[in-house]
Amino acid sequence: RCVCYGLGRFGRCPAARYQLAFLLLLLDELRVPPARCALFDPAFSAREAAALRALGLCLLPENEEGKHGVEGAATLFYMVHCGKALYNNLLWSNWSPAALSKLVIIGNSFRGIEERLLSRILERDYSYIAKVLKGVEEVALPNHPRYLDTFNDTSVHWFPLDKLQELSPEVWDCVEEPMYQDCEDLEIIRKGE
To answer: Where does the source fall among the domains of life (predicted)?
Structure first.
């Protein structure tokens, strides 16, 4: 399965078109049928939604705010240039070694997020990203001069079960839903906004 968040207005934006093209090539390479790929972006126009359906892709009916569970199935999350809260929510909704080990994320570098944020902000606002840093493997996509703005800071992330099981048991105890009340730079569109 595949879930794509935050693709953007590909009808207007060349970078979003390149990201869509890469997604389609990736689905083909991984032999994931388009019908098993669900997308959501609150910015999609009616024409863009119709184009995605014509490609055989599915649209999620509502804004999940990134809170999509893997439900026991291996799932690729394609989230290029999404906000930190979406990644944090995704991790929270799959917060167990069994679920996280079935998850692959193509999106913003977690190591880059760690480097750019003060540790107290990372731990306060994006605690699930902070907690999983020692349990994630990450490989950056190679840079290409033509697509620097399209895929910069993009990595493939996966969560090996053995690494997750090495984390302290206390890491798994806290399962409080992220609220972002004190977050100054929240990069997420909430339900109903």
So the answer is: Eukaryota
